[in-house]
Amino acid sequence: xxxxxxxxxxxxxxxxxxxxxxxxxxxxxxxxxxxxxxxxxxxxxxxxxxxxxxxxxxxxxxxxxxxxxxxxxxxxxxxxxxxxxxxxxxxxxxxxxxxxxxxxxxxxxxxxxxxxxxxxxxxxxxxxxxxxxxxxxxxxxxxxxxxxxxxxxxxxxxxxxxxxxxxxxxxxxxxxxxxxxxxxxxxxxxxxxxxxxxxxxxxxxxxxxxxxxxxxxxxxxxxxxxxxxxxxxxxxxxxxxxxxxxxxxxxxxxxxxxxxxxxxxxxxxxxxxxxxxxxxxxxxxxxxxxxxxxxxxxxxxx
Length: 302
Ligand SMILES: Nc1ncnc2c1ncn2[C@@H]1O[C@H](COP(=O)(O)OP(=O)(O)OP(=O)(O)O)[C@@H](O)[C@H]1O
Description:
Elements (H helix, E strand, L loop, with lengths): L2 E12 L2 E12 L3 E5 L6 H8 L7 E6 L2 E2 L11 E4 L11 H8 L6 H10 L15 H13 L5 E5 L7 H16 L3 E5 L3 H7 L2 E6 L2 E7 H7 L4 E6 L2 H10 L10 E4 L5 H11 L4 E7 L3 H15 L1
Parallel strand pairs: 3-8, 3-9, 6-7, 7-8
Antiparallel strand pairs: 1-2, 1-4, 4-5, 9-10, 11-12, 11-13
The site of adenosine-5'-triphosphate has 11 residues, from strand 2 and helix 1.
């Protein structure tokens, strides 16, 4: 399958502030791509630029092979988006909004499916002025999906949603992607993105510092650790460091697990030195720890 979105060497400044530096990535057809990075990294700016909402100095954006700029955005007819807060009309119902956004060709059955998947039946016929933050957010997502677009761009879609609604949204996004829709999603809820995104773009200070699959990111960052409780932890740490094991900071004995034989050889090192190992736990790495590692490395490289 090909790419639905190509962003090539994108540069963007606000006045003298250069906020996107040669941003380069693709989104494959039917893929769910997570865009993550600290506050102010440039996530919303990338999304707005792709959507032709703001201009850019140099680079190229193509959706389904067609170039997008603020003055040329025919390609965006097939793109759905929710950026920041959805703009709603207070005196229209949720249903009116979906009806207004629908381009006419798609089926009622698709709209009803989205409403029911996002559990919006109870409030969809009520005026939007009375909606809670979460209800508005759900309606915003539904509006982005209503025309069955090929590419959906969602900026922090989980904002304001309760755990059940987050799961409902996740299930819907996965179903739509299985039907061929691609997603570019930014989120601060990393544990959620971990369950959802197949590919990950990590951005820091306007630069993509990593573009990889979620699986590869978690494995390559090697954040799986082995936690040992020994009869003498300070001595155990000294012995393991001397034997070139990588340890987490802090007083505990937590070894970064990078090889198949890490546990066996660490145990041998400690037992041969006369220490007892009283307990052992394997701890799996998370997107959060991988991300923090990557950003820390990026800072050191500066
Ligand atoms: N309209 C604007 N005028 C001037 N500077 C802007 C404007 N919009 C964004 N910026 C700056 O561009 C940089 C990137 O902002 P952006 O909103 O894209 O970051 P973000 O990664 O989405 O952050 P957050 O996670 O906090 O939403 C920031 O330094 C921000 O201050």
